[in-house]
Amino acid sequence: MKYYQDVDYFLFFMDFPHMGVPGVIASNSDGTANIYINTLYCEEVQRRTIKHELRHLVKNHFYVDTMSIEEKELEADDIEDPSCIFADDFSSVEYIEEPICAAPENVFQHIPGVIPVFNSLDAFRNYMFSMKEELARQN
Length: 139
What we know:
The chain is of the alpha+beta class. The protein folds into two domains: 2-95, no CATH class; 102-139, no CATH class. It is built from three helices and six strands; from the N terminus they run E-E-E-E-H-H-E-E-H. The strands form two sheets. It has a three-stranded antiparallel sheet, covered by helices on one side. Helix 1 (43-58) packs across helix 2. It is elongated.
């Protein structure tokens, strides 16, 4: 999928009150995002920060609840990942999605006609991680 500056995301360059953060991304209610870059940093850090923040956008980090903030930050830090192709002037970024492998048959083995019920989000999360591990073992 390809994202375009001034259509899907907006870049704002400004002096932050301090150098504690090189940049921030914020989602808008219309599905676009604002990226704020701290101009107190050198140009090289600003370019790396734009790539980092754009990776949050293309990896849908605003809508992924199965990853911790630390996991999202580590994934966004991988700016050399070839799945993201950045225009030289950051006017666009293209995300090449990895093909989704079909799940093996009978991964969710339940009694026919019975729907699993979870008493908490933690129970559901643990169930999903167990299924993920089972898939990994089967592959």
